[in-house]
Amino acid sequence: MSEYIASPTGWVAEQVELYEGSGGTEGTTLRGLPVIIVTNTGRKTGAIRKTPLMKVADGTSYVLVGSRGGAPTHPLWYYNLKADPNVEVRDGTEVYSMRVREIEDPAERQRLWGIAVEAFPPYRDYQEKTNRTIPVFIAELTE
Ligand code: F42
Q1: Could you tell me which CATH class the domain 10-141 is placed in?
Q2: Ligand 1 center to residue 95 CA distance, Å?
Q3: What whole-number distance in Å separates Cα of residue 100 and Cα of residue 117?
Q4: Packing angle, helices 122-129 and 106-119, rounded to 10
Q5: pLDDT digits (tens, 9 = 90+) for 25-73
Q6: Domain boundaries, the chain
Q7: Is residue 109 in contact with ligand 1, taking CB distance under 6 Å?
Q8: Among 4, 21, 65, 132, which one is most buried in terms of CB atoms within 10 A?
């Protein structure tokens, strides 16, 4: 069983702690908006990583946005998902086994980006802040 390594970013690790520790009944928002937790596998360490992201639902799927606040480089979880698309998504008290794929098709990306910005408007500002194209994944149920 791989070990869990918490985020080195304090407030993120704390949110994961509260969210998971409460079975998904506390710590489930950021700025009053819903957050999911994506459990993924470290590409280099093989460790269990838990990444809170804004909840952007598309039917039973989730849109994962690698914004990292508009930073010039992708978050590291991006590389984890590219290496191993099998994740768990915790949405409140529910946990789903899902597979992720990066959205390459421009039309699909435009549709999903629209849903993401609707759910969390700061994504638009983050994209304006960087000339990095913020990556978008979709996480779909595996059954
Ligand atoms: N980040 C977003 O990008 N989008 C969001 O919508 C979002 C929402 C959100 C809501 C609540 C909250 O608490 C945090 C939120 N975040 C959001 C922040 C998000 O959870 C991440 O902290 C952020 O995106 C940065 O991701 P990161 O994976 O770059 O995190 C860094 C700080 C990190 O964890 N670094 C570790 C370290 O030790 O430096 C290593 C992480 C890792 O996965 N390493 C891999 C391994 O093998 O273990 C190797 C990765 C590689 O290939 O180098």
Answers
A1: mainly beta
A2: 19
A3: 19
A4: 120
A5: 999 999 999 999 999 999 999 999 999 999 999 999 999 999 999 999 9
A6: 10-141
A7: no
A8: 65
- Whether 32 is in the pocket of ligand 1, judged by its Cβ within 6 Å, is no
pLDDT digits (tens, 9 = 90+) for 100-119: 999 999 999 999 999 999 99
Residue type, 37: I
Cβ of 129 closer than 6 Å to ligand 1, yes or no, is: no
The pLDDT of 126-141, averaged and rounded, is 98
Distance 121 CA to ligand 1 centre (A): 20
Tell me which of 38, 74, 76, 84 to substitute to probe ligand 1's pocket, judged by most ligand atoms within 8 Å of the beta carbon. 76
* Phi and psi angles of residue 63, each rounded to the nearest 5 degrees, phi first: -95, 125
The Å distance, Cα 76 to ligand 1 centre, comes to 6
Residue 31 to residue 120: CA distance in whole angstroms: 10
Indicate whether residue 68 lines ligand 1 (CB < 6 A): yes
Identify the CA nearest to 102 among candidates 115, 84, 117, 114.
Answer: 84
Mean pLDDT of the chain: 98
Name the 3-class secondary structure at 38: strand
Q: Tell me, yes or no, if the pTM score tops 0.90.
A: yes
